[in-house]
Amino acid sequence: MATDHCGTLKDVSMTKLDLIVTPFFVQRLLALFRCRCSLLLLPLLAGCLATPASVQFLDSATISDVRVWSGTVQIRGVVTVTKTGHLTILPGTRIVFDKIDVDGDGIGDSELLVEGSLVAKGTPTAPILFTSGAATPAKGDWKYLYLDFARQAEVAHIISEYAYSGIQVHFCRAEVVDSEFRHNIDGVRFSTVNIEVRGNRIHNNTNGLRYEERRSTATIHDNDIVDNDIGIFVVTRSADQARIVQNNIVGNRSYNVKLGLDQSGDVTLPDNWWGTTDPAAITRTFFDHKYDSSLGSVFAPAPLEQPVVLPQAQSPEGG
Fold first, then answer.
1. Which domain holds residue 126?
2. Is the pTM value of this prediction over 0.85?
């Protein structure tokens, strides 16, 4: 009687002789039973042997050595990378900040503070996500990714959402490129820096880009600064040295550009796309001297005739 590789009896037209219980017949039945059970157990075994995604929990921790993050990192309180610390965050990593508000100011207190070195470089298909751990996330659930006197700051292909500031950079050299900042109070914020902000999508924040120039060397180019309440908020002390060119600054709900208190100097933003080339229409989207005589004026010479094209990027978990 022929059998397959599992010992299955292939001859279905069994005779009385075939039904005689012989040692050979019993062996075949046992082989068939073993094979069938093994096939049924394979999915169960695969589930049991699968490696679960790693989750690391950090509660007000300090990093003073070399660390590499991957998988999911859940942060409660302030995690500080000290001057001697070096943190690398791998593509596809999720950094989830617990929503806590110890001081009761309405802003979450969890944050990642970098005084040493940070290399956070995702990829277009595996960005690094900084997000809220709240069941129903909202702006300001956590404080910020804060680079303060950082020794090294390389940020690319990240998504930062539901923070007070998606990223803040102060008193250091930094590169923030090809990333997305959404659903924050401030998308990108800086002061007194040497910074390049390039190829980012900054949208659906209260303030898209907020800065205090304070002798900064800043180049802001090839970004989407769209669909925020205020596109660019020039808070104070700008000497009109920041170079903000070749951006799409359009569709911001209150103003495309707003000058803050004590910004008495003019601000010039050449070679950007404002959704139109009509100077009067562009000017109407600026909050400046025409609304408050103590403020300077915003000028937008040589507006672009069409939008700047940014590379396509994947945006996990909504937009």
1. 55-299
2. no
